[in-house]
Amino acid sequence: LTGVPGFPLPTIHTQQAYAPDGDFTARWTRADALQIKAHSNPSVSAGQNSLPSQLIMPGIPADFPTINPDVWVWDTWTLIDKHADQFSYNGWEVIFCLTADKNAGYGFDDRHTHARIGFFYRRAGIRADQRPANGGWIYGGHLIPEGAQEQVFKGTAYTITAEWSGSMRLLDPRDNKVSLFYTDMAFNRDASGQDITPAQAVITQSLGQIHADFNHVWFTGFTTHTPLLRPDGVLYQNGAQNPYYNFRDPFTFEDPNHPGVNYMVFEGNTAGQRGVANCTAEDLGYRPNDPHAETVQQVLDSGAYYQKAAIGLAVAEDSSLSKWKFLTPLISANCVNDQTERPQMYIKNGKYYIFTISHRTTYAAGVDGPDGVYGFVGNGIRSDFQPMNYGSGLVLGNPTDLNQAAGTDYDANPLQNPRAFQSYSHYVMPGGLVESFIDTVENRRGGTLSPTVKLGIRADASAVDLRYGNGGLGGYGDIPANRADINVSAF
Ligand code: FRU
Fold it and tell me: Among 126, 233, 303, 349, which is 20 to 30 Å from 281 by CA?
């Protein structure tokens, strides 16, 4: 790797694999993340995209169609097996989405405390250009019977609960048993919406069954909710240490190198009391004598220590995936960024990629990058992960002008690119296809699925495939199965 004049060199990462139950945590360092700024054009005219185009999602047209008139839709996932292959069931493709009622009198920004997991389905095996413009998904309703997820919070104080992201495992493609892993949330808030006690986030399992006939898809079960993991304050930060802790978004998989063992990655934070100024030289990651290095004291003086994301790992202790044990975090981002969300393990050509989503506004002081997908590659599920693309970590950002203040999705900075919040919550699917939801395009709110895009992924580099779809944008909500269950029949 050669450096960019005026910027530090990225940290050297070997990609070496370590034992999954070992205690090595890779670092996404400040030296790494600064490569994003190093590759941003400081002199674009205000509101353009300043970032390398091969790492940027093409602009979504402002006249996008919506998936459904009655529900907001955001984080979305698919029906996967232990290898993250995406299955259709009995001739139907199925997706699971966080949803909120559009007609209940609250807006898209209030969705988080009203989130319910809903599902949609559509016939499998139809080309995107032969489907309706919005993807042709049929809304199937809520997955979990009303209130069933509240059993996890029995005996605790809360005022409202929500169902946050996770993943859906088809336990055996020869039958219809599915296991939902999701984040069960309980908030305890006063009338003005302030937390009385920190929100409770519990990674939870619930078992169900998928059914389909010629006309529709439906689910049974999801009545029993088993709490799997609460942050322990030792490996993962908890609410007593930081009322703004992040702990959610379970994704399970089997490692082909450890057959029969089930792992889970999830979003967390480095354990410890919030506000303790203790990032280290290793978190900064500068090479010896780099003339552009910051000192630890400079970084601590900037307040960057409030941002300490961690990508967590747990291992299943039984075959029914109902007992899990924390392992040491796979990646930390201390003094770099506070959120590494919806992490997933993507195994391709013997390489292990961790993809995760993050925000511009959760970066620590002095480091910057767009909303979107970040990626890290190593030789095993626990590795000295190399941040992809010139050592930066950026894989697929929204069009963003890093020279201008971020603004927000609900209150745009008029000088910022009007697509800086166009999409979020991306999930990388088989074949490098990436789905996400639309947040804000030219001040129009989305709450619907984005056009699918395609990444070319090779070693530690990636690029948006501009030959895919229309200038790089595929169908809205085009989320195809790459495998069929053995019940393929009916049609
Ligand atoms: C990402 C996310 C997830 C969480 C959900 C809550 O968009 O922050 O981490 O599960 O949204 O709405």
Answer: 233
